[in-house]
Design brief:
Layout: E1 5-6, E2 9-10, H1 14-26, H2 33-60, H3 62-68, H4 77-97, H5 101-119, H6 129-144, H7 151-155
Helix pairs in contact: 2-4, 2-6, 3-4, 4-5, 5-6
């Protein structure tokens, strides 16, 4: 049996080759621009879709929530609630579209920081776990940007 080389690897029977070569690509650390842009689209839409119901509930029941809402930064509970509604509902919609993405996630990051640190007393693994996950996702979007499949990407920002 002679040792033929196939891409630097000794020739193997067909079933092993059929498994090896797709796995090699799957386990690779390389990625294409298409993969990055698709991943950022999924992260943006997923984070926005998951955040909108929180903001919508606060928007619809604004009067009820404004009475007992947390007063952060000493601005009063009504102003604090209005800022949270702006972040959780309107900024989440802008995030899904990819419009002013990096600017849009700053209020969301601030909102999640306050939620985790103040409202949930820093319990990132307990009650504040969802807020922590949102916070990490929004920081990733801030660092990586919206990708090409966004209004910002189309405008060339």
């Amino acid at each position: 049996m002679d040792n033929l080389l196939l891409n630097g690897i000794a020739a193997t029977p067909l079933p092993l080759r059929a498994i090896y070569f797709p796995m090699r690509k799957f386990l690779s650390t390389r990625y294409s621009a298409w993969s990055f842009n698709t991943a950022m689209l999924l992260v943006r839409i997923g984070m926005g879709l998951l955040m909108i119901p929180h903001g919508y509930d606060k928007l619809v029941h604004f009067k009820k929530y404004s009475v007992d809402f947390m007063d952060f930064f000493g601005m009063g509970s009504t102003v604090s609630l209005a800022l949270v509604v702006f972040a959780e509902f309107f900024c989440a919609m802008f995030l899904m579209m990819g419009l002013f993405t990096r600017l849009t996630v700053i209020p969301l990051i601030t909102c999640m920081l306050v939620a985790v640190v103040d409202a949930h007393k820093g319990q990132i693994f307990g009650e504040g776990e969802h807020g922590s996950l949102y916070l990490i996702g929004f920081i990733v979007i801030l660092l990586c940007g919206p990708g090409k499949a966004s209004v910002d990407g189309i405008m060339g920002k």
